[in-house]
Amino acid sequence: MSEGDDSSSALRPIVAQGLAEEVLERLKQAILDGDLRPGQRLIEHTLANELGVSRTPVREALKHLAAEGLVTVDGRRGLVVSRLSLEVIEEAYMVREVLEGLAARLASEHPYDPADLQKLQRALDAMEQGGLSPKAFDAVHGEFHDTVRNMAHNAYLDRYLGELTAFRTRMVSLDWIPKTRVTRSLEEHRSIYEAIRDGRSDDAERLARQHVASTRKALLQRLQDHADA
């Protein structure tokens, strides 16, 4: 789908149950997956027709997405999927670094459910086996970080990291992360997992923060190189 294409055919009709929440999640995921591209217009009645709902839940979802920074007003074009500036990405990743570190620390300090460790292990195995599409890699990568977040058992941390999900998945979905960085990150995920498993809270926090910081630097460098080209 081209950037200027106003179609959003990746969206499927949804049922009425949990309508408002489902509309929000569907639109948000379409943005994170790259099905709705940066700069693409978001026309309320078109989205409502494609989702098979009224315009009211779509309007509310767009307001929420605007508050998260995923949707912006672009002059006469109206609402569009946000284009992320280098400054916005850097600021978001700096916050993510602190929060991901705290999540890993808390996860290592709480008695863990063996099922959670199994989720982390499965996500690691899937990432390390290779051959995944960007979207498939994103799914298991997200499962890893979301499981660590859940293991932290902190509602506020869960909320704020959840709001920063766009600065984790969107980068991979749009193929902005250098492949060499993805390879290196696999070793970092393994080290974070082992620190959490062994209850090494200081190491867990340090490794998680280093992981996000390294990703931020690699991402910004690639984007800057692209801008200068």
TrEMBL record:
Q: Name one Pfam family in it.
A: FCD
The record's section on InterPro entries has: GntR_C, TF_FadR/GntR_C, Tscrpt_reg_HTH_GntR, WH-like_DNA-bd_sf, WH_DNA-bd_sf
Domain (HTH gntR-type) spans: 17-84
Query: Is Transcription one of the keywords UniProt gives this record?
Result: yes
Q: Give the record's keywords alphabetically.
A: DNA-binding, Transcription, Transcription regulation
Q: Please name the SUPFAM superfamilies in this protein's record.
A: GntR ligand-binding domain-like, Winged helix' DNA-binding domain
Q: What is this protein called?
A: HTH gntR-type domain-containing protein
